[in-house]
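Re: 2P0 structure - here you go.
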Amino acid sequence: MAQVPSNIAFIKYWGKRDEKKQWPTNDSLSMTLSGMFTRTTARLTDAHDFSFALNGTPLAPDSAKGAKIYRHLHFLAHELGTRQKLDFTSFNSFPTACGIASSASGFGALTLAALAAFTDSKNLEELQQQGFDAKKLAQLSRHGSGSACRSMMGGIVQWQAGATPESQAVSQLFSREHWDLNDLIVILDDTPKAVSSSDGHRAAVKSPLFAERMERLPHRFASLVEAITARDIDKFGLLLEEEALNMHAVAESSDEGLRYMTEKTHAFINKFKELRKRWGLQAYFTCDAGPNVHLICEAKTVENLTKILHQEYTQLKILHDEIGEGPSLQVADQGIGQ
Ligand code: 2P0
């Protein structure tokens, strides 16, 4: 069984230089989570094609979600030069339809489970001996979904765009032990998003704000790394928020006018800022390509922050997670992917 956690980006991957080669326009940085993960098992099958079920429901290759998954499986088989077919079952630890994107953990776990089965590896060490270390796993999972590559390592992870598609690199910048960051995910809307991230990446480069974003990002990236190095939560937080708002400004100002942050998102952020000031809370927000809000803070802030949020909003749905170790792989001797 392959277990791969989700990640939350501090500096966002938003825009591709080359879609086919999954080459991003900029470096990104994220925190690998712990409790929000996908578990996937793979078994060898004599069937003529792969099969895949998510949370107990089979996904057809011609469905919107399924097409991307089966394409990735054929890509992996081609990379390994194998004609073996596999039967996958996959589960998310977080509730389905909670509005949390699962492509990073999903494609990460799919890649890891497939490679373990193709190479008959029973743990990460055996897989590494077969030539698939974390960097190679990141490189392969990126083709399924870009953000998945950052989930192949724990702690705080950098995805460097590099000067060519081939020189992209994923590396851990800080271990989990460096800083006890937590993520309170405030679920404001649990319906699936109308615009896919892939459409968002395509539209990003057409925004009139995109060139300025590219100019400013290297400095923002370096300052954020400095803040993480110094564990300076307030400096970190201001940069985190600046980056999230900038990514969403780019999305909204593209030709297509993509809107991921909704009225509810803005209303919540305004209220949160008021509460932060009133109670002196050291917590900061970021948003992915969706309406929900991630509040990032140190472990010592979680209890108080949760209490204050529940006092203000009696019905608020909050998922709690923290910085994590990265993927794991355990395969029993009986069959692959137990
Ligand atoms: C990120 N997102 O860095 C950014 C922030 C969403 C907002 O990476 O087309 O699903 O599969 O490579 O990885 C979402 O994009 O896109 C994403 P594909 P992916 O986490």
